[in-house]
Each structure stands twice: as structure tokens, then as C-alpha cells.
């Protein structure tokens, strides 16, 4: 990715989010868009990665790609991405509670 996190593949204005894969040529690749908010394949656990209860999982954590139920998902107040409880922290600052993903929490010192 170029400075600022913008993709080099010609998709102007789109940013890298989620886990990237390394292709056979050594370049970073995005996961196909169909897998970002898809139902897990047959044989894969449909349990929430945080509470381990089976639920209608519709979202995956953008940091670790684990499925998260609606009750356990957290929305980063900085970049508005969905994260699980393991990949986010809560900042109890002067402004009140702020959920920050691991990527944004390093910039909020």
C-alpha cells in the first residue's frame, strides 16, 4: 500500500481493511469481497469468537477475521470498523467511553 493506506490497484479512495493475503508473486492481495460478510462455509464453526455461543453470525472482526455475534461486536469510534473484544480496547478518557480497534489505539496515546 502507498502512504496513507490507499490501494495501488486503481480503486481510488478505497482503503485497505481487514486481513490481507500475500500472493504467489509477493504482492498484497485483498480477500474477495464475497467472503467479508459471508456465512461461514460448511464445517466451519458458526460460534461467536467472543462468547462461543452459536448465533446467526453476519459479521467478522476486521482485525482477526473471526466471526462475531451482534451482542459481542464492537464498532471502532475512530475508523468505524467491526471488531471483537480481543481486538479492541475501551478508552475511558475525558470524553467518555470510546471503543478503539488495535490499529487505531496505537495512535490514541
UniProtKB/TrEMBL annotation:
Organism of this sequence? Aptenodytes patagonicus (King penguin)
Record InterPro entries: Siva (IPR022773)
Q: What is this protein called?
A: Apoptosis regulatory protein Siva
The GO annotation for biological process reads:
extrinsic apoptotic signaling pathway
Q: Which GO terms describe its molecular function?
A: CD27 receptor binding
Instruction: Return the PANTHER family for the record.
Output: APOPTOSIS REGULATORY PROTEIN SIVA
